[in-house]
Design a protein that fits this description.
This protein has about 200 residues and is mainly alpha-helical. Helices cover about 80% and strands about 0% of the residues. It is built from ten helices and no strands. The protein is globular and about 60 Å long. This is TetR family transcriptional regulator C-terminal domain-containing protein.
Length: about 200
């Protein structure tokens, strides 16, 4: 009996956790960490407050779990950089992936940016450990290509920082970008063309 019931419980638990994290994204995006409440998260998730507290012991715990999930999603494209691929194509593919994430996940991007601007109090351990290791690996690949003369020499970590900042701008300052460009223009399409040209000129040997 136990073996047949565990998979069903696991699916239910995962579904409820996903609902809670989605509800938390709604609440934190609208009200910030301080302004959001467990009651708001529960309403957004469509669950009772006791049900939310069954999975997470506090609002801070939900916030940290959400940010950890977002960080993993944010880092996935970097981990897909292929050391055996064409260097310029790999960098441009990574840039495009980050830009599309700004289009597809603007609330998530703004929530993560807000956490960083606050000094990353909920992500200090992750930022100092796993993030640095992933960036170090990517920077090592980029530096190897530069040493081989396959990319123009620049500081690989600052190259990564520039991709983060330039692509995430379209999510974090979406209202400003659209206001400046005016109606009928696509910020992501136009931004993609501009950034493609920028990095091609910067990195072509």
């Amino acid at each position: 009996m136990t073996e047949t019931s565990e998979p069903q419980m696991s699916r239910i638990q995962q579904k409820n956790r996903d609902l809670i994290l989605h509800g938390a994204l709604e609440a934190f995006s609208a009200n910030g960490l301080r302004g959001a409440t467990i009651d708001q998260i529960a309403r957004s998730a469509g669950l009772s407050k006791p049900n939310v507290l069954y999975y997470f012991g506090s609002k801070d715990e939900i916030h940290k779990a959400l940010l950890t999930t977002l960080l993993e999603m944010w880092l996935a494209p970097m981990q897909q950089i292929d050391p055996d691929g064409d260097p310029l194509s790999e960098v441009l593919r990574y840039m495009r992936a980050k830009l599309m994430m700004s289009q597809d996940y603007p609330r998530e991007s703004r929530l993560f940016a807000h956490e960083i601007l606050q000094g990353a109090p909920h992500l200090t351990e992750i930022l100092g450990g796993g993030l640095r290791e992933i960036v170090d690996r990517a920077a090592g690949v980029l530096q190897g290509w530069m040493d081989q003369g396959r990319l123009a020499p620049v500081d690989p970590r600052h190259l990564i920082f520039s991709i983060w900042s330039m692509t995430q701008h379209y999510a974090d300052f979406e209202a400003q970008v659209r206001a400046v460009l005016g109606p009928g223009r696509d910020p992501i399409d136009e931004g993609g063309v501009f950034l493609d040209n920028l990095y091609r000129k910067l990195l072509t040997p």
